[in-house]
Each structure stands twice: as structure tokens, then as C-alpha cells.
Amino acid sequence: MIENYNLFLLVCGVAFLFGALFPIMFKRAPISLPMLQVSFGMMTGYWWTTLSFLDPIDNGLIIEKLTEIVVLVSLVGAGIKIDTPLTWQLWRPTARLLLITMPIGIFAMAFLGYYAFGLSMGAAILLGAVLAPTDPVLASSIQVGPPNTGGEDTPRFTLTSEAGLNDGLAFPFVYLAIKIAEAYDQGQRFTGEMLWSWFTHDVLWKIGAGLVVGVVVGKVLAKVVFSKHLKETTISQGYVVIALTLLAYGLAEYVHSYGFIAVFIAAFVFRRLEREHTYHHKLHDFAEQSEGLLMSLVLVTFGMFIGQGLQSGVELTWRVYIVSFTFLLLIRPIGGMIALSGLKMPPTEKYAISALGIRGIGTLYYLSYALNQGFFAEEDAIKLWVVCSIVILASIFIHGLSAPRLLQMTINKPRK
User: Fold this and answer.
1) How many other CB atoms are found less than 10 A from the CB of residue 297?
2) What are the distances in angstroms from CA 36 to CA 4, 9, 195, 381?
3) How far, in Å, CA of 123 to CA of 375, rounded?
4) Has residue 107 been placed in a domain?
């Protein structure tokens, strides 16, 4: 990779140019920016035969850290731009997606992974856990708009809040998969005592502590930035976004909780204290641009990896395609409709929310993080990367083409 460094920079420069010109050149085209960038990466990876193979297993640590940064910035942007107040009535659809739809997706994909691909129990649960959460990065195009720009319709708000909070249920199952794989790797059985330890520590403590850390960091930083002794207009929004991200994430990880939850909650609480202030718009713009740049880098690299696989003649069985499309077109939509049943919402809104569960960069992070622990067999790791890559690729194109039409079908009535 090092010997092709300059050419790689050139490829990234073209990808960034796509991002800059996309709103102008492709305004009326039925494609999304992720579709364009992944396609460009695929063509580059397919035809650039001198480029060394981008092996995700050998480069797992790089993938983990890069995707981690992208997700963190995306979570800050999502938390800052939510105008909807924290009331049970408005957040009930989000809660149902988290408590009903996500577990359905986890167990359904774990079942398919175990029986369709012959994965071990730990690897099967990991497959469900990494594919269950809606991606906060690639879903940004179907989320709510910038702060203080008007009312938020139910589909966009629900998808935004779900993407910001779904790590709270995804990550515990990632850890469950790791613990099961670790136990079998050491020749032990996964006992009920281990399960109880997982529930008390990885579920109760890490979620609860992450929420507390997010609230504390958000309130403290908001009081500092909006203090009467300081003029917030003179404080660089870049410093504030980075400080909010790293303080919340670093403190949460230090107390062994979920940093992703802490970052989203910190951004949301920070916004609550001075909800109408125009400074939030500046913070959102910085976070959005930073997220776009990092997303472009990851998507082009991901596309190059797919292109190299196609060029090398990697064989994909029919099971991979069937399971991938079953998850995107059946499991997630059905799980969403089950969760939203009984709520007083138009059917078109329920279907749009259920169908637009985009998978993307978050999945790459969870998967690389888990595999980097070293407890999963290489055969399972290869299968996981293949399946997850196809699901992400299919999601980018399916949702990129369908999202505009699905959102136009909904009753776009802003809530007060």
C-alpha cells in the first residue's frame, strides 16, 4: 500500500471532488453520493491491478480505528441536530425499534448465520449483532436537517434517534459473541454464570454508565461554552465538536461503558441547554463536513476492496445473496412493522421507517473490533467479512435508490 501512496491520494482526491460537486452535477439523478463513491472505488480496485490486496483481516486494526472516528463524528452531528424534545410520546417509535426490531434482527441473522453458513455460535451471534444497528453515517441523508431549520417529521426523526442510540443494544451482543468465542477458544463451556456477568456488566452497567457520562459531559461543556463570561461566537466550533466527542468518548471508555452512547447523549444534552442558539448550526456544519470527508475515504476504500475481490474471482455462493437480501428486504422491514404496530401513525410512515434501516460503516467497525480480539477462527472471520460486505454494498444501492421515494410517500407533517 505504501508504494502506491501517491496514487491512493489521487483516488481520494477524486472521491472528495465527487462530494463537492455532487449537489450540483447529480441533483436530479436517482443516485446517492455513497453509491457514486463506492462505484468509483470498485472500478478503481478492479482495474488497479498493481495495488496490493486490501485484506480486512490483516488490516483489522486500521479499519477499526478509522471507522470508529467516522461513527463518532456522525453521532455528534446526529445529537446536535435533533430539535424534538425528550418526551415519551415522541420517542416511543424509537424505543420500539431499539427494544423490538433490533433483537429480531440480531436473532434472525444469528439463526441464518449458524444454519446457512455453518458459523460457530459466537460468530453467528456476532453476525446478527454487527448487522442489526442502523448506520448513523450512511443514514445521514435520510435524517433530520440542521438545527433550528423547522419541524421534524416522524420518519426522519425516528431514523435519526434510532441510529444514534442503537449501539446501546448492538454492542452488548457484540460482547456476548466475543465472550462465547473466548470461552470455546479456551476449551470451556459458556456457563450461566458467564451469561449473568455479561448481563450485569455489558448490558446494565455499560449502558447506564454511558448515559450518565453523556449527560454530565453535555451539561458541563454547554455551561462552559454558553457562559456569560465567554462569547460563544469566538469559540471555534471545530474545537468544541472535537472536545465534546473526545471528552464523552474518553471518559465513557475510562469507566468501561459505551462511548458511542455517551457521545450521542452528550451532543443531545448539549443542544438542550441552549436549544434555539444559532451556534448549534455552526457545530452541525463542522461535524457534517468532517463526517463527509471521512465517509468518502472509507467508502472509496471499501469499494476498492470489493473491486479487488471481483477481479480476483472470489466466488460468492447463492446463500450469501439470498441471506443478504432476505435481511434487507424482509427481516428489517417486518421487524420494524411489528415494532410500530399499534402506534397512531400512517402506514406509509411505518413502512418507510421499517424499510430504511441502512447498514454501513458502523457494521465495519463492530466487525473489525470483535475480530481484532483474536478469539474467532479465520474461517469464520472470512465468512463474516464476505456476508457483511455484500449486505453493506446491497444496502447502499437499495436504500440509495428507494429512500427519496419512500420519504416522499410519507405524510410530511412537521411536529410542533
Assistant:
1) 18
2) 23, 18, 44, 28
3) 10
4) yes
In the numeric block, which cell numbers belong to residue 303? Answer: 469499494
| CA-based nearest residue to 261, from 221, 220, 208 | 208
What residues make up the domain containing 167? Answer: 34-409
Q: What is the CATH number of the domain that holds 313?
A: 1.20.1530.20
Count the domains in the chain.
1
Q: Which tens digits make up the pLDDT trace of 326-365?
A: 999 999 999 999 999 989 888 999 999 999 888 889 999 9
Give a yes or no: residue 14 inside a domain.
no
What is the sign of the dihedral through the CA atoms of 350, 343, 99 and 118? Answer: negative
Return contacts of 248-255, CB within 8 angstroms, 24+ apart.
248/213, 248/214, 248/217, 248/218, 249/72, 251/213, 251/217, 252/209, 252/210, 252/213, 252/214, 255/209, 255/213
Tell me whether residue 56 is in a domain.
yes
Q: What is the distance between the alpha carbons of residues 35 and 397, in angstroms, rounded to a whole number? A: 6
For residue 81, the surrounding DSSP H or E stretch is helix 60-81
Dist CA 288 CA 377 (whole Å): 38
What would the pLDDT profile of 134-143 be if each residue is shown by its tens digit? 888 887 778 7
Using DSSP's 3-state secondary structure scheme, residue 235 falls into coil
What is the widest separation between alpha-carbon atoms in the chain? 64
pTM to 2 decimals? 0.91
| 16: in domain | no
